[in-house]
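Backbone-to-sequence.
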């Protein structure tokens, strides 16, 4: 029978690699907790309406990338394509925004997008995201940018640069969209089919189009930075000052608009120099909470794509190895090995014993393969005398131990 394969654009995590995920997740936790952000978890699927309204129905995500289905009750559900809309929904539904502000949240989630699978682009991938609600201050924008960079730094990643821009507020952006409409209308016939549709509804989206033709045209388009109102201009300058003051380098890119509709003012991306792909991205989204039914509340956040970080991480640490492998010969010795293993494991020691009824030689080969720090062989004579050789595999040295003294053995193995 033909084997069933994993769906295109998805990835398995194999036993030899799972420690790398634990490492990245532990660094994410540490980074977020270091600035007072608390973890939240929310459902893998939400009502489709949440993303249609939250992410915005002129975005690529909502128009072509969502995994949407009707459940058996006929309700339209969608596998989350990102975390921000759910984090806002969770906060509103649980009254978190009525408590002490700012509200600082983070999440580690898998997300689903019907993207075109290729290097660094999958249909199920993982994000680490941080969100900050209630703070209007430009230091909030700067803190989030700083946190994204800190996450990469804590992972030992180099070779990533920061791009920032301001895309203004609904007031100044309306004037900008008009100017863009006029500009792109003059080149309408050259635009891709998708962008022709964007022209009337949301011309700013065209700046984010991945088609080379549209990108080329967009190079000559008016720049948002020439349209910012005084408040947005002042805010943007203050964010840049805050970053400069802590020695953060950035490149201003007036063409950076991001793929989600909810952004206002600051947007940013951290780009991998080698591939040109964004490894983290975010910005301010002052309108979203209100859009989803809350009170007007300023907000800023970012999300980092974990899979894209993997090739950039120099050292993932190691998987824990067995502290001891207890080999045995015969049924009585196997029972004793099993009993000792149980006693040691109850003390938190990582132990393996033979489960395959193999020869001692084969067992020792296995102990070597798994990199056990210590080994011990139990046979009839060890059971009789009550003592065995405990071998330190790195040093090749052995010392006699009392096989019924679990506490003494625990002390040696802990050191
Ligand atoms: P892109 O322009 O590359 O499609 P995006 O604007 O859709 O990115 P966001 O929605 O901001 O990306 O998601 C945040 C991060 O998630 C991105 O910066 C990137 O690191 C990662 N990411 C986005 N799409 C994918 C994907 N299909 N596979 C893997 N990682 C992704
Ligand atoms: Mg995308």
């Amino acid at each position: 029978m033909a084997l069933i394969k994993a769906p295109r654009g998805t990835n398995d995590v194999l036993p030899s690699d799972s420690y790398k995920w634990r490492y990245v997740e532990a660094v994410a936790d540490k980074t977020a907790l270091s600035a007072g952000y608390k973890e939240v978890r929310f459902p893998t699927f939400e009502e489709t309406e949440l993303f249609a309204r939250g992410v915005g129905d002129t975005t690529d995500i909502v128009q072509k990338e969502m995994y949407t289905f009707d459940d058996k009750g006929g309700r339209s559900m969608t596998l989350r394509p990102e975390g921000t809309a759910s984090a806002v929904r969770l906060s509103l539904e649980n009254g978190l925004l009525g408590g002490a502000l700012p509200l600082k949240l983070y999440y580690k989630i898998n997300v689903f997008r019907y993207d075109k699978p290729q290097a660094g682009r999958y249909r199920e991938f993982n994000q680490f995201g941080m969100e900050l609600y209630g703070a209007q201050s430009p230091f909030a924008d700067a803190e989030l940018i700083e946190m994204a960079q800190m996450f990469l730094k804590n992972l030992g990643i180099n070779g990533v640069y920061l791009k920032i821009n301001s895309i203004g507020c609904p007031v100044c952006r309306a004037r900008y969209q008009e100017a863009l409409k006029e500009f792109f209308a003059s080149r309408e016939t050259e635009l891709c089919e998708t962008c022709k549709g964007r022209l009337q509804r949301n011309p700013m989206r065209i700046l984010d189009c991945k088609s080379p033709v549209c990108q080329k045209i967009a190079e000559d388009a008016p720049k948002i930075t020439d349209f910012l109102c005084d408040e947005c201009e002042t805010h943007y300058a203050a964010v840049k000052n805050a970053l400069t003051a802590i020695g953060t380098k950035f490149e201003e890119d007036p063409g950076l608009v991001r793929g989600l509709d909810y952004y206002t003012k600051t947007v940013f991306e951290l780009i991998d120099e080698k591939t040109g792909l964004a490894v983290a991205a975010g910005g301010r989204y002052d309108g979203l909470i209100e859009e989803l039914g809350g009170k007007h509340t300023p907000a800023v956040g970012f999300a980092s794509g974990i899979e894209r970080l993997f090739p950039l991480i120099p050292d993932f640490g190691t998987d824990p190895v067995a502290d001891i492998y207890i080999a045995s010969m015969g049924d009585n010795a196997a029972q004793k090995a099993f009993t000792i293993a149980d006693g040691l494991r109850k003390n938190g020691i990582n132990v393996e014993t033979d489960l395959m009824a193999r020869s001692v030689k084969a067992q020792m080969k296995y102990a070597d393969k798994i990199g056990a720090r210590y080994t011990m062989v139990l046979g009839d004579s060890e059971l009789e005398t009550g003592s065995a050789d405990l071998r330190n595999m790195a040093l090749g040295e052995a010392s006699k131990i009392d096989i019924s003294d679990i506490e003494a053995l625990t002390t040696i193995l802990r050191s």
